[in-house]
Design brief:
The complex is a heterodimer. Chain A is of the alpha+beta class. Chain A contains three helices and five strands. A five-stranded antiparallel beta sheet of chain A has the order 2-1-5-4-3. In chain A, helix 2 runs antiparallel to helix 3. Chain A is globular and about 40 Å long. In chain A, about 25% of the residues are buried. By secondary structure, chain B is mainly alpha-helical. Chain B contains four helices and four strands, in the order αααββαββ. In chain B, the strands form two sheets. In chain B, strands 1-2 form a two-stranded antiparallel ribbon. In chain B, strands 3-4 form a two-stranded antiparallel sheet. In chain B, helix 1 packs across helix 2 and helix 2 crosses helix 4. The two termini of chain B are about 35 Å apart. The chains are: A alpha+beta, B mainly alpha.
Chain lengths: ~140, ~180
Amino acid sequence: MSCYTLFIINKAGGLIYKRDFSADAPKLSVNDQLRLVSTFHSMHAIAGRLSPVDPASGIDHIETNTFQLFCYQSLTGLKFLITSPAHTSGSLEHLLFKTYQLYSDFVLKNPFYELDMPIHCSQFDTNLDKLILGK
Amino acid sequence: MQSGSSGRPKRLQPLVDRPLSKGKGEVTLSAFGFLFSEMVQKCQNKARTVQELESRLCNYGEHVGVRVLELLTHREKGLKRETRLIPLLSFLTGSVWKTLFGRPADALERHTQNEDEYMITDKDPITNKFVSVPSDMGAFSCAAFVAGIIQGMISGADFVGIRFSCGCIWIWMEH
């Protein structure tokens, strides 16, 4: 599965992790990244409210002619976003779910990590590489 | 040392007369991961330097080690405690490791130069499985907890041990 970038957003809408998995991923400045992520966070909330169906989940999947974006929101309000090339067949949601499992293993059980802070855990990075690039 | 009371039902017998249970034997790795993470954070709040953190963690391990020695001696060896060093070390790397971590320790070696030194190696201690140590903490390893368990067991068995821990666990012992 080829992917461009993974973002993890905490429940306040702040970016806590960003990782590029491909050389084709667009290079964004730090400010742009933060702006992008907080915009997505607000859009996700608005989409949930606008939906005609009552228990609405917000944005799951955005498809454009240049890329696709998948979003998984955990029960704790954490969002996992992944962008991939336009013609990716199939959903990458299972990848996001596995990323959530890796997060709960290598970030939440790390005593040196503070909740809602940017993630700097080497074990999380190596296992994420194995998951996304090793596939 | 069987219960000396009359035929009362087990739950009415005094606590010290009841036979020692076999124990559950298994705990989920996640539960251990979270609990251990909280323990390390608690030590970190109290400690000011990395050395102090390591020694606090080791101290917690000692509490566990003393109790583990008593419990496993009772359960596995029929109340016969090891009094000689090498059988104790084999007990440690075999039964104790299996009970605590689900597998025997990877190696037990004697140091080539100093006859009094022994090394127990564990390539993948479960204490370090989910922990990523930040680079400013240097060579700190949460395996200090396991070193503490060993330290507690050795001193509980009345030997004199000096401990040191790193990524795999090495214990230098002199007696």
